[in-house]
């Protein structure tokens, strides 16, 4: 495994960003020359922190399915929009630009996000071809384009069902100015990448209406989407099993545990990695 810490942006503790890679190494015995899709994981944390419960365990889970994975520890409060978004854009560009070094399929780079990290991932999915992001990041649209997105109980809206702390942390003093623009149900177009998304009915922190609003917008724009709504589970459960639970067992929700395998099946269909795969 190629496990490296790559600095994306170096400032103070809260505003620095780095990428932790979990890449398959080249093997002459196993699939020589095999290029793989890559998944960049954005943990949640209300744009105030990045959660350990939505990071390494998920990276290893999806690496075990055959994908290159990486965890982006992006800037949080007091950093404000679009700093974290530019960092994710640069992470996508980094992987695409090093496709030969790391044997990455350049047209199969997926962003995955949890909660506020889901908002970050979906922000790149909706803003990747907008001029303001090219200007802010110094990248061309094709360099930072995500080819797919996996959104896990994502923050989407600043409206009636919004998680307003996330938006206040993200926008800072520009909250009133930016909240509608950064309500991503308003930003979906036909250029938004194909999407896998899940949520729980019991989530009382980031209400399921967030993902439902995004689902409706994706459908209206004609974007391919797979959506799962589970009956139980509070917010921030990660994989839904012991690997992402706290010491009191919070986060073990068996009915939600299949989400990762369902996402794996979606990836197999949409982004197959094995060169002998039959789709």
Please describe what this structure looks like.
By secondary structure, the protein is an alpha/beta fold. It is built from ten helices and eight strands. The chain has helices spanning 56-63, 83-97, 99-102, 116-127, 131-137, 141-144, 164-171, 175-178, 209-221, 259-270; strands at residues 5-9, 17-22, 36-42, 68-73, 104-114, 148-152, 194-200, 225-230. It has an eight-stranded mixed β-sheet with strand order 1-2-4-3-5-6-7-8, sandwiched between helices. Helix 2 crosses helix 4. It is globular, with a radius of gyration of 17 Å. The model has no long low-confidence stretch (mean pLDDT 95).
Describe the structure in brief.
The chain is an alpha/beta fold and about 280 residues long. The chain has ten helices and eight strands. The chain starts with a strand and ends in a 9-residue tail after the last helix.
